[in-house]
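Two folds, back to back.
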Amino acid sequence: MRRAKSDARDDRICDLVIVGAGAKAAAVCARLRALEGSEEIVGNLSVLVVDRENCWAGNWSGAHGHTRPRALLATPPDRDVGFPYEEKQEQVRNQLLSFSWRAFLAEQKRLRSWVQKGQQHPAVEEWAAYLAWVGGRVSGRPRVTPGVDIEVALGHTVRARGIDFDLQAARWSLDFRAPYNGQKRYAKHLMLTGPGRPRTLNISVPQSGTGMKHVWDSRDMYTRSADVSRLRSKASDANIVIVGGGGAAAEAALHSAESWPEARITIVSTSPTLWTRGNSPYEWELSANPRLWATLAAEQRRTYLERFSMGAIAPLVMERLSQLANLSYETGDVTTISPMSDRVRVTIRVPWKTKTIDADVVFQCLGYDGTAVFELLSARAKAALPTGGVTDLPKHLDAGLGVKLAGVSNRLIWPGGAAERYGPGLTDLTLLGEMSRRTLNHLQI
């Protein structure tokens, strides 16, 4: 890291603020703790991690939607917050290993059992517990001098357009809705994380004649308990339509089969079939090797991302889907959803004809719009971005997964936008340790 000793002394000002207390925030904070006492840390640093949920890894826990708690983690858990642990300094590597998945299991005396059972992929709720364990260990005051002060503000909501950038003062500001009650915090650098907003069909979505909501996004399906209870009462003749053909759609099908075993479930996607991720060493190497990724042409990168990252289903999940007798698949486009007395009618354009399904529930599992996080930025902050703004930002991201603003040294870091340019391993769970290394190496704090 190229850094000078920080002159930030106001307790409202920090060197780096991270929005989102998930896997990426845990990885960056774990690396900062591992660097304490090394030559990389020149002066005392301050970091603020802020999240609107009251826990670390809320999006992984299942409590706030986004994931099915019992779903199996698609990525091997050894690809944890420090992976691949290719550190030049042995001290830093050993410190990072103390935050590893295996260290987490060892502390709970479960490592031997996990190894003996074949090192199986854990449920995502257990992965959330691991990230919370890391978060609890990294937060707090510096352990040595110079060191890092990591403040974690959980349950703190940033106002819409509440993140501003002041070019003259060369700092970011965050305006909180609660519980700071309008008090602002300031930072030299900003890191944005999180999945964004669920994508939905670009058509009008009605309620039924009874006023019930029948069309849900991929967060709703795990959180709308009242609607779940209503559907259970008529499960024997219930119809469920799932729009999408990737991992989220597959998990929605499993969730539906568990919640309503007698319901008829139909997956609708424009893809000709449901694809299975091969999990071969060749696929993983391409995902986890940014140098190899750089040799691919743009069209090859897009094809890989569609097949491996966005449109494929993990083998264990596909095996469970194949056992569902009440699941069917339709290739086509959903063109309209029309209200009925107590259902909605889904019209699907399939080759050479249209088809309708009268559905009790429609789950929209079409992925996430990662750019939605930029709705937190003010107009002035967006104006400081490179030419093209948010739309073209992925083209401008440097090897540190960020950009400098308006000719100053302040940075906006957005790993979520780096997939096509630097490979999916730096945006998902595959290379969290490399992601954190690149991020911190490009900061001047």
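---
second:
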Amino acid sequence: MLAGCFFVKNPYIWVGFSGFWVSVLRLLNLGGLVNVEPKPRTQKTQPKLNHPNQVKMKTNYWEKLEPDVGYHIYNRAVGRDNLFSNDGNYLFFLEKWKKYLPYLDVYAYCLMPNHFHFLAKVKPLTDALIKHIQEQRTVKSQQFLLEEIPYSEYLEDQFKRLFSSYALAYNKQQARHGTLFQKRFKRISVTTEYKLHYLLAYIHHNPLHHRFCSNYEEWQYSSWTAYRNLQQPSLLNRKEVLSWFDSDLDKALVRFLKFHEDFRIDREMDNWSLEED
């Protein structure tokens, strides 16, 4: 036997001894007698990529609302409260949207008890929209007309007016007090055709995702019904949406429906893990 070492034929016993002596050497190292610490690695950790050529960037949930840009717009109730408690609440909210936000082309929407989603594009300013802004007679509308604030700031104020107006009526009906909506509604620009198609189907499937229903086609408070009944009038820009699938309306509708059904199957396989809301 040599001092400080054991030679043992059994490898399992050797592991036990070697672990013990490493511990001893580490204690000796505290006194500066022996250096057994490994050299630090110099290799840099590579960032995880979602795409071979793309580093994941932090999402900006509060982008400026710009003309001719599409957005995924959503918000929810504070805490565990609901936004909608009966059929009338859903219809009332849509009427308020129509009143305060004629500046957006809506492609799809879904209202659920505690939150909502919209897919919409900001319209470019026209004479009709300028006239509507003049009729608002608010501080922000006057500031915008005087070119003191940008269009995006005026639109944000219109959203605040929508939420405030709805909350006042809802609180009165439900005998509740305080804030109803989360303070800042989220809006993320949609910059790719893939994301545009994805959100269209995701929004229609959202009640199924949150288990408010067993079949997304049965949910009454989404734009799905408007696409299934094209003969009925609607404020949705259905013509543009269907043109994404085909220039021929009949073929476009068939592809639209198949895209949604395929989406349902894919999301069931993925266990709905791609979105937070």
